Structures are given as C-alpha cells and as structure tokens.
Amino acid sequence: MSEWKEATIGDLVTRITKGTTPPKGQGFVDKNGVNYIKSDAIEYDGTVDQSKFVLIDEETHEKFKRSQLEEGDILFSMAGNYLGKSGIVTQEMLPANTNQALAIIRLNKELALPQFIGFCFRQPNMIKYVNNMSAQSAQPNINFQEIASLYINLPDIEEQKEIINVLGNLDKKITLLRQQNKDLEELAQTLFKRWFVEFEFPNENGEPYKSSGGKMDESELGEIPEGWRLMSLSSIATYLNGLACQKYPVISEDKKLPVLKIKELGSGISDNSDWATSEVDNKYIIRSGYVIFSWSGTLMLKIWDGEDCVLNQHLFKVTSDEFPKWLIYQWTGFHLRHFIAVAQSKATTMGHIKRSHLDEAMCIIPSIEVLNKFNPSFNAQLELYINNNKEIQTLTQLRDTLLPRLMSGEIRVNPN
C-alpha cells in the first residue's frame, strides 16, 4: 500500500477564487436563466440543494467570468452561519455562477480528486478547525490564504478512488432514501388534498365522490360532505410549546440530552448543539417519529428523525388523542404556507405566528367511517417514511464514523 503524505490545499489547487455578487436586485430573473448558487444551498454533509438555487440572466453570467463554475469545482463557504460548509459542482448544475461568500476551489486532478477533498472538508474536526480560525472576528469569516493553508493527509489517486467509493456508496443510499421520502410525502399531500380538501374520494360504489363547490384553500372553505366536521387546528391537536432550556442546565453527565432548537430541526443534532438536563417533564422529551412544528423564525414542519432530545421554546410538539398522526400532520402542513406568509408580514426581526392563528386555521375532518377507510393507506405511507428515516440515521452514523478514520488513514482501503 502506498504511503500517505501531508499536503496543504494550496499544494493541490490550480485556482482559488470567489464568486461575484450582482448589485442588489440586478441581474436576477424568475425563469430561463443561469443557476446562481448561494451559501444557503450547501449543507454540512456536502449536499447541494438545487431547489435553493436562484437564477441570473445570461448577460450577468457572462459578465462574471471569474465566478463561472466548472464540473468538479468545490464551493467552500467563507463567512457567516454557513462557514466551513462545502459542496461539489456537478454537470447537471451547469451552467452556473456563485456569489462572493463562496470560495471556488479548482484542483489539479492529477494530485487530488474533488470528491476526496470534499470528504476531507466534511470531517467534523476540519469544520471545527475552520470555525476556530475565525473566532476572533465579529463576523465569522476566513480568506483564501487560510483555506490554502489547511492541511490534509493525501493518499495516491487510486486509494483516493477507493475511499470515494466506500463513502460515496453510503451517500448514494442516503440520497435514494431521502428521495423516496420526498416522493412519499408528495404522494401523501396529493392524495390528502384530493380526498380531504377537494373531496374526490371513492364512494361505496367505487365512484369518485365530488361535493358541490367543495374545493378550498387556506382562506376559503367550501361545502363539506354529510357527517364531516369543520374544526380548527387547535381543536384537533395539542400544540405543546417547548421549554426555555437555558433554565434547565446539565446537572450530571449521565442525565443530559441535546436541545432541539430550530437549527437542529433543520439540520440535526451536532457538536454545536446545546445540552439540558434530562430531568424535565417527560412531555418535553422528543423521540424519533414525533411531529414537530417550528412556529417562530424559520417556520417548518417535520417528523423528527434524530436522537432523543429536549424540546426548546419556539417549537411545538404536535399530538392528538383523538385523531391519527397523519391527519394532524397533513392539516398542519396544509396551513403552513399561510402561516409562513403571516410570519413574514411581521415587522419584527423574527417573524412568528400566535396560537390565535391555530384557532383560526380550519380543517375538514371526515367521519369515523371515512377516516377508518383511509387510515391503512396513510399509516402505511407514514410508517415507510419513518422507517426510511431510521435507515438514513443508521447509514449516516456509519458514514460519519468511517469518515474521519478513512480520511486519516487509520482505516486503509486496498485498491484492486
């Protein structure tokens, strides 16, 4: 097996530059443009979320030649809350451009492969090191010279390929499961809207039932079928707000749990998460499979798929003793767009909704007979969704355990 050598990023690049930010409001288009990638599209696991891309016109793209991207470029976030995140540009993203908060790292591919360096950047100790480099700054940031100075352990190209294969296969399995869950959620939302909002569900004869004027949106309720009820969100489910967890500090190391805040709801528990004592009322302990709704700041709805944790304020745990989980999840999700609009209209720095908005959000609840009829279908979808999340967690833990050991050479992979 070949010996590894120590190298800096600066030893391996042909170019390090950064993107260009257009003058405010200029060059952006709604459609038929060139992809423009910002820091918020990049996650700590190396994922580049193309749904968060915006578009610029061709003229602006051509003007910013310095920041035009190529396949294999590594985008490295240099500032703010996204500091240390990185992702790799793929062919399907091109043509593309990026802003000045992202460094563009172009490698000499005879020395290092983008996927290998991408895995190097994803190591928790590397992310922590990068963040510590900027600890003295009021606004966290690093520069080109600091990126170029980062040290890595470098095997030869063949061993790089084998490491990429091991970690990449785990990433692919995780991505496939996430896509399956996305498809499951879209299917469930489509069926829910068709059957419980537009009332196009089969009757006893197998024919579609259609109410007269039954379609509705968040602000307009139509006629509902006989035996169904009109109820508010607050009456079909309990929305339990979390604790001010700073008031519940860790007392002992064997009785503590991470704190679930808005950040963790979006990206999971991390080394940077806060901790609280586990000796709080059991109703505030969140476990995998619970429905969580962030009602302040970044509004989102999620079935929690992480480890046990303590619910922080600004998050609701959503439960019901009367109705199935899928029904309260779907109705909360149905009204989420309206809630987001309400929160964004607030004149405060952190938009939010009030409990009164839950009281005002109306839901059409089917009869027990109809509910029992559709329970198996929605429960099966939800169970598969939750099981996929559990498998994602298992694969993620395996990948994250292997990652630093493979990248340091502690575990070696024999090239064929």
Based on the model shown, name its key terms.
Adenine-n6-DNA-methyltransferase TaqI, Chain A, domain 2, 4-stranded mixed beta sheet, 22 strands, alpha+beta, 4-stranded antiparallel beta sheet, 416 residues, globular, single chain
Q: Looking at this structure, what is the CATH superfamily of the domain at 5-154?
A: DNA methylase specificity domains
CATH top level assignment of the domain at 5-154: Alpha Beta
Q: Portion of residues in helices?
A: 25-40%
Rounded to the nearest angstrom, the radius of gyration is 24 Å
Shape: globular
Sequence of strands across the biggest β-sheet: 2-9-6-7
Poorly predicted ranges: 205-221
Report the biggest beta sheet as strand number plus sense, adding barrel if it closes.
4 strands, antiparallel
Mean of residue pLDDT values: 89
Indicate the CATH architecture of the domain at 5-154: Alpha-Beta Complex
Portion in strands: 15-25%
Indicate the CATH topology of the domain at 5-154: Adenine-n6-DNA-methyltransferase TaqI, Chain A, domain 2
- Tally of DSSP β-strands: 22
Distance between the termini: 11 Å
Number of alpha- plus pi-helical segments:
11
Helix and strand content put the structural class at: alpha+beta
